[in-house]
Amino acid sequence: MKFLASPAGTVAAALLLINGAEATQSERSRAVAHFSKRHPTYRAATRAQSSNTSDYRFFNNRTKPHLVESLPDVHFDLGEMYSGSIPIDDSNNGSRSLFYIFQPKIGEPSDDLTVYLNGGPGCSSEQGFFQENGRFTWQPGTYAPVINEYSWVNLTNMLWVDQPVGTGFSVGNVTATNEDEIAADFLNFFAKFEDLYGIKNFRIFITGESYAGRYMPYISSAMLDKNDTTRFNLSGALLYDACIGQWDYIQAELPAYPFVKQHASLFNFNQSYMNELETTYEECGYKAYFDEYFAFPPSGIQPPKYMNYSECDIYNMIYYEAYNPNPCFNPYRVIDECPLLWDVLGWPTDLAYEPAPTTYFNRMDVKKALHAPLDVEWELCSTDLVFAGGDSDPGPEQQGDDSPNPTEGVLPRVIEATNRVLIANGDWDYLIITNGTLLAIQNMTWNGQLGFQSAPATPIDIKMPDLQWNEIFEAQEGYGGLDGPQGVMGVQHYERGLMWAETYQSGHKQPQDQGRVSYRHLQWLLGQVETL
């Protein structure tokens, strides 16, 4: 999701976290050995895949032009990987097309296909592929890409798509004015993708983050409309830090002051400014509204509210003031501070560090390797609108998206059809605030009842050992065994087909910040575990 109110070049890139519970060297070794036996796909992830295409499940004469044989600066075997553009329209002339990256599951084959979409609107899913849940990852401030031990390709076939048209490497005239039209374009692309790779009767899971909280329910609902399980066997959805309700009021303004109060040491406002915020919070009616409707079970349907931006924009009062104590304030991850880390994806730090290397996906050798359009100037988040309505039209951030909020219809439908939907929020995210998302859920009716009937309280206990950084810890004298199981990393709650997860120590991009927790989320989505 793009934060349009932010001054150019001031949003910080995510920092790299290393967290772990204490354990002895022998306990750590036993944990890794035990986990590897139970999860052989992890062992497969650390081995170079065979470059013999006869081993590739989806390789044929039609897919050969899409095969990615190598990537610049990625100094290990990619394994089976494809990318390219697929026309949306029946003309097949490519004038309107969506760009994708496809990585089949490592190890034993699976008849599951998981789609991951980034938000914006207009943010490229190459970010999800390269820094969140792809087979390898190149994090901000690091020298080179490495294998991602918590990659989702250990569990499922993965498909990242630049959509809608105008996003990333996806080209064509921008025509959509609502989510139904976005979904129609996606389904046209998806059917052609399945035909190209011979995919039939796969379980389909739609996942993503941020503004994709609007894309995903509409795409999922459109799949249900098709009543065709050969192509569109929708089996679940996972929404990270998602825009699902009335974003400006319910998910931003109402929970903003309680968020700052909860994280007071991170914002470090002086007492007089905290008093001013509290007064605004009370006099604008936010406190009374939040106290009444942030309840379990819900106290009733939440009446619609409209913003008084001239006097009650407490969200932006907080946002702009945050740059005084912390010039590198990052609403996506509020613990970040200066210096900004250089990011291979070129945003948001490209305006801060000049000169800097060319953004990875704008390099000509990278474009050629990925079969991407050579004449497209790739942006992580498009500076042009991807809805045709214009920037004065409705929708979150006034981006021209005039569709109803997902909580008002399509999201409940997806929950009821699959009974396998997970909504998760990171506790360090100011852009989509955890309690704002919960408040939106409490105004949604699904499977016969309004909201959750009891408050989330069950811990998420991550027993998975650290596999990403263990070699670094083991190589340093005195540090071996300090990177064991994480322990409690959040709170979960399940009712009537919907799983809620609050993720500790995570910002807006949970697969990037908390790979182990995100991996557990996916296991639940795929039905491999029944609790988080």
TrEMBL record:
One of its GO terms (biological process) is proteolysis. Keywords: Carboxypeptidase, Glycoprotein, Hydrolase, Protease, Signal. The keyword Ribosomal protein does not apply. SUPFAM superfamilies: alpha/beta-Hydrolases. Residues 1-23 form the signal peptide. Pfam families: Peptidase_S10. It is an enzyme of class 3 (hydrolase). One of its GO terms (molecular function) is serine-type carboxypeptidase activity. The keyword Hydrolase applies. Its EC number is 3.4.16.-. InterPro entries: AB_hydrolase_fold, Peptidase_S10, Ser_caboxypep_ser_AS. Transmembrane segments: none annotated. Residues 389-409 are annotated as: Disordered. Belongs to the peptidase S10 family. This is Carboxypeptidase. It comes from Aspergillus vadensis (strain CBS 113365 / IMI 142717 / IBT 24658). The lineage of its organism: Eukaryota, Fungi, Dikarya, Ascomycota, Pezizomycotina.
